[in-house]
């Protein structure tokens, strides 16, 4: 049998009956379906908004779904289609949950940021986007 993500935590029942007599149940059994699937994420900001050039901002990658829950191996960030490496300007903490961008520049840092999380079932997708707009001084 194969189950989808939407069938997670569904209870299956099995009834054993006598041939020709479906009302006389000999035995019953039940099992809860445990479907493992990669996490989904959302990106939010944790610092005061409307950042200006020269300031810093922290983005947060929140896990909104996934099974097994609470078993996040790593989180990965990207800007547009480019993976963000850690550097002096881009620092990660708490297994990548937080991305801090230091010394913001309008021309370098404006854009769509996304994150993905990985659990035992695999890496989620980068579907959650956050548009960072850096205001000029």
TrEMBL record:
Gene3D superfamilies, sorted: Immunoglobulins
Keyword Disulfide bond annotated: yes
Residues making up the signal peptide according to the UniProt record: none
PROSITE patterns: IG_LIKE
Keyword S-adenosyl-L-methionine among record annotations: no
GO molecular function, a single term: cell adhesion molecule binding
Principal place of residence: membrane
Entry superkingdom: Eukaryota
Short name of one Pfam family: I-set
Membrane topology note: Single-pass type I membrane protein
Single Gene Ontology BP annotation: cell-cell adhesion
Domain (Ig-like): residue spans on this chain: 39-131
SUPFAM superfamilies for this protein: Immunoglobulin
Location of this chain's protein in the cell: Membrane
One GO CC term on file: cell-cell junction
Keywords: Disulfide bond, Glycoprotein, Immunoglobulin domain, Membrane
UniProt name for this protein: Ig-like domain-containing protein
Organism field: Ridgeia piscesae
